[in-house]
Amino acid sequence: MVLDPTRHADPARWGLVPDVDVRDFFPEEDPVLASAVKSASRGQWREAADVMAPTWGDWDRRARVTESLAREGARSDEWLNNWRDERPDRDLAVLDAASWVRVAKEILGDSEEQDHVDGFHRVLRRAERAARHAAELAPQDPTPWWTMIQIAGGLSFDQSRFAEIWHELLVRAPQHRAAHEDALEYWAGQSSEVMLDFAANAGPALVLRAAFLLEDDDPVIWRTSLVADAMEQLLAADDLSNDDRGYLILALYDHNRFTDAIEQFRALGGRADGAPWKRYEDPKGTFLEYRVNSCRKAKL
């Protein structure tokens, strides 16, 4: 009997959601945060203040809320200015700095034109001043130092200067996940050897992220023992983020473990909105390409 490759690759046959249900954008799932972002888009700041305040001490939650609100701050700063006029505080300072980083990234985009690069650097320097002000207002908060880590790569801080920022972050939140991910990006622009050493000490999820960043220059990076060990550790983990599952799929695919990759796709459902998919020009298309090829190559 000849196997029908189209039927073999049918998502439903593998318990996967249909292609039409795969999306590279999903609305904010946290209703309180979603409402705060919506209010901010209308120039209203109080909901943002209310959602930021209880994140104090839960630094990963604070990073997530800061990220969402800062994206809105980059689109429109009316609510930030209103907040500043009515009741400036440490949370506003944190969001102001983070918003400037996102403004800088939007200025640069994918452009290599000198005026875009100059604008990017100019706004990042403003973000740096804002982050240091936020750190002064909230000495215990790692969030401004996380923002500084993001700034470090864009402004090409030397390693000793970066080390000072990293130290300030670690003494406040040694397990800060978002900061580790952005520190990896910094090291990617410095030294592949140092980046891999950093990732190995930070955990298996960071190792797979490092492999992704290095794959263009080192196509066999996925087959190294470091990556293989990290892959096995993540497969044994009880709970993975969608981003971690995405990088795990790339590792499994390169190791021809297509059935295992399909299990991760099944867990992701229709979520093509995270890493590594969002780093491609066509996130949904790339997600679907890996998925259908995994189905075609897997053994029933």
Structure explained in plain terms:
The chain is mainly α and about 300 residues long. The chain folds into two domains: about 1-25 and about 190-300, no CATH class; about 30-175, no CATH class. It contains 16 helices and no strands. It has helices at about 5-10, 30-40, 45-50, 60-75, 80-85, 90-110, 115-135, 145-155, 160-170, 175-190, 190-200, 205-215, 225-235, 240-255, 260-270, 285-295. Helix 6 (about 90-110) packs parallel to helix 8 (about 145-155), helix 10 packs parallel to helix 12 and helix 13 crosses helix 14 (about 240-255). The longest helix has 24 residues, at about 115-135. The protein is globular and about 65 Å long. The model is unreliable at about 1-5 (pLDDT under 50).
Secondary structure layout:
Blueprint: H1 5-8, H2 31-41, H3 46-52, H4 59-75, H5 78-86, H6 90-108, H7 114-137, H8 143-154, H9 159-172, H10 177-188, H11 192-202, H12 204-214, H13 225-235, H14 242-254, H15 258-268, H16 283-297
Helix pairs in contact: 2-3, 2-4, 4-6, 6-7, 6-8, 7-8, 8-9, 8-10, 10-11, 10-12, 11-12, 12-13, 12-14, 13-14, 14-15, 15-16
Protein name: DUF4034 domain-containing protein
Name the poorly predicted regions.
1-5
Main sheet properties: none
Order of helices and strands: HHHHHHHHHHHHHHHH
Count all strands and give the number: 0
Q: What Rg, in angstroms, do the CA atoms define?
A: 21 Å
Question: What general outline do the C-alpha atoms trace?
Answer: globular
| Share of helix, binned | 55-70%
Mean pLDDT: 95
Distance separating the two termini? 15 Å
Number of helices: 16
Q: Into how many domains do the coordinates divide?
A: 2
Overall SS class: mainly alpha
Q: Which percent range describes the beta-strand content?
A: under 5%
